[in-house]
Every structure is written in structure tokens, then in C-alpha cells.
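Figure 2 data, in text form.
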Amino acid sequence: MSVDVQDLDGRPVIIGGGIAGLMTALHLAPEPVVLLSNALLGTGACSELAQGGLAASLGRYDGPELHLCDTLAAGDGLCDEATVRRVVRAAPKAIKTLERFGVAFDRHPDGPLRLGLEAAHSHRRIVHAAGDATGSELVRALIAAVRRTASITILENMEARRLIVEDGAIFGVLAAGCMDAVALPTRRAVLATGGIGGLFCDTTNPLGSCGHGLALAACAGAELADLEFVQFHPTALAGPRRPMPLVSEAVRGEGAVLIDERGERFLAETPGGELAPRDVVARAVWHQLAVGHRVFLDARECLGPRFGQRFPAIAHLCREEGVDPATDPIPVRPAAHYHMGGVAVDAAGRSSVEGLWACGEVACTGLHGANRLASNSLTEAAVTASWVAESVAGALDTRRRRVYSTFMPPRPNASCIRPVISAALGIIRDGETLRDAVATLLPIAVHNTAASDPALVALMIAISALRREESRGSHYRSDFPGRDADARSSRLTLRSAMQAAVALSWRAPRRNT
């Protein structure tokens, strides 16, 4: 591909081709923008795998205050209430905006939107599209809208490798494709790069989702927040496929229950049962597996022969693994699914680096706290994209210049460090294993290899997990099982993380294993 960067000089560069990036580009129209995607649009993004929907208080007996209360409860004391209030109030309008962009949401035969129920929601408020293929439908419609929008220049199969910073401000984006590299001059960059699930052996995310946006932000000097909070989905389809197919929480919302190999329901006495907060359910499943049991999701009684009609994509995935969910329990296990932490941003999505914004899963807005409420993630991306776009548009920069850079990091690859990360940063953590992981990751992070950026992200998460000496939300420390009454949101920079990692490595050499 040949790119005349001079023609793109000064345009905002949006990095990421999922829902957050696509919607930010659309909201910026008619201002010319560059949309950078490391794959063909519609492939490789977490968004397209989303089975759950968007949470919005659209029901007759629901309202933003109820949605607010459920979100704060799930966030376990670390949500930013002002952000939560602002997002839940804007959610219904975001649904209408998506419909305007061409998304076809599921409706009842007489017209109203079909609203589903998921864990820790007090009301049915989950809006789906194409049954259990919401992400795919959203991406399809938004890509079509982007391709129709003349102001959006799409650079596919181009991966951002570094943000170029001068005097503490964004100066350009260094990107590489299959055959060439480009330096895009810009004073405005938006990270919309998704999450970190690809750092783990068991994940529902594309394996390329290994925190690349966090590495870009950290190397640019940005502050990151709440990195220790990684949500594990309790019910990924157990099997050899990676990423692991997700068995949506909506199945439990329809009445499916979790059982062991003897057919015993082990969450019967847990408040909320199968619809308890995800961290509670994930730990319960983990404990069953740890003592040698197998775990299944049983939808035979609640759905039976209707399963394929209600959840066609899940039914197809199950049958590919030799399971008929209408007559068989579905084998499941937890898998890394969503990152509540990310680039610390303000109400407009601005990071601590001038000219750098973040939107979607890569950002930490304060909405999710310690544990994301189900289906609030797509809602966050849809809502905040308009706020980010408004802020980017208001920071117009017309200065033209040429950017040169000689440093090109290799394409990230997390495969060699996944076992270390999975062991140290899983559902149950402890200080000794975390310290060992830091000692292993530090020398990898400081070298210029394909594993360096993923190791850097994992190192920062491990340092954050070590610093939080309590158990809260998705972060559970077996050596600190209690809660800290004065716990606050955590903040970290690359410099402070590296200083902490070096100090730990000097203080406690890695044990022999």
C-alpha cells in the first residue's frame, strides 16, 4: 500500500477498528480523519465477538437511577459516580444513534425493543442485535457507515507501533504494514485499541488483543489506572479453540444453571445465584475446577429445543464441539474477557499527554470500577465516542510538518509469556507468584523483541496487583482476602512501574521452580 502522508498531514488519527474507533470517526465527520486498523475492518477486533448487548434503561419500570445503582454495586466501591451517572443517562440516546447508523436491534413482533437480563442487573435492560451476535451486527453496520463517509480515510492492515511525542505532546503516529512503514504527522491521536485478553492462555478475546494500546500510551508517558482489575467471564466454552467461544451471560439470564459432573447446582445458596456479579461466579467455577470437578451450563430445562432459536451462534459453536445445548449440558470454564483498567482519561476522554485521547476498553473512565457490570462496555464505547469526538474536534491543529522516525518496534507477540501471565494474574492471585512474574517479565520488557510490549503491559498490571493488598471486585489476593476500607483507584506510569519492578528484582531474587 502506498500512502502519501502529506495528504493526511494534521488529521486526527484514530487507532483501532472496533466499535469505539468506528463511532469516533463517524462522530468527527465531516472533519477529515484517518482510521488505522491493524487488520481488515471487521476482522481481529474484540467488538465483533461480543455476544452480549448494550445496557440502557429503556424498560417501562426501569430508569437511569436504577442502572446507576446496579453499576455502582458491581463496581465494588471504585466507580466514579459522576461518570456513571453521565453514561447511564446518555445510554438510551446512544441506542438511537446506533440505529441511525444502520444497526438493526432485536424487537418484539409488535415493535418494542426486546430487552434481556444479565448478571447483577435489577431489570431487563440489555439491547441485543441478531440474537447472540450483537457485536458482529454493530461492526457490520458501522463499517458500512464508515465506508460511506468520504471524510474518513481508512488504512487497513496498518498497525501503530509508537506514538511520537515532542515536549510532552503528540507529534505523530509511527505505523507499519505488510510492506511499508509510515509516519503520520498529527497533534491528535485517539486510542481505540481494545483490551488485554490475548495476554492469557484462556481468553475470549482475539489473541492479538494483548494491550497494545496500553503499551503505546505508557511509552508516550501517559498515566494508566486500575490495571489490576481484569474480568474473567465465568462461562467460556471449554475446549481447545482459542480464542475461546463465549457462552453469553444472557443464557443464564434465561434461566440456565451451573452444575458439576454429578448434576449438582453449586451456586444455589449464593445470593443472586448464576446471576451474581461476574467475579463471584467466576471464582465459584474456578474453585470447582481446582478441586477436580468439571463444570457445565445447563439450559435443558429453561430453553431446551428453543436454544438454537434464541442463541443461534452459541448453538452452532457448541455443535462444532460435539455438544447439543438443547439436550446436553455445555462444558464451561472461566476465561479472561474484559479489562476495567486502562489509560486514565478525563470526562472528555483526554489522557495526561497533550493530544492523546482514549475510547472504549483501552480507556479507564471510572465507569466500571473494580468489576464491570454486564453489557456496560459496549454502552460505554457508544456513549463516550461522541464525547471524545467533540473534544478532538475542539482541539483543531492546522500546523503542517513532516515527521521522521528511525525506531520501529517489532509487531507484538505475547505467546512466549502467556503461561507466566496466566499463572500470576488469574482469578486467584498471591504476592509471591506476582513477584516471580515481575522478575521474569522485567528483562523481556526492556529489550526490543516481539514479546517486549506485551511483557511491559503485563509487568505494569502485576505491579498494580502487588500494590493492591486487598481483595475487591475482580482482583482477589489469597494472601489479602479482606477489603481495605480506604481503598482508592490506582494510578501508574511506565517510569514508576519500572522503578518498582527494579526495586523488587533487587530485593527478592526469583525463586527456583
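Caption note: DSSP finds 14 helices and 19 strands in the chain.
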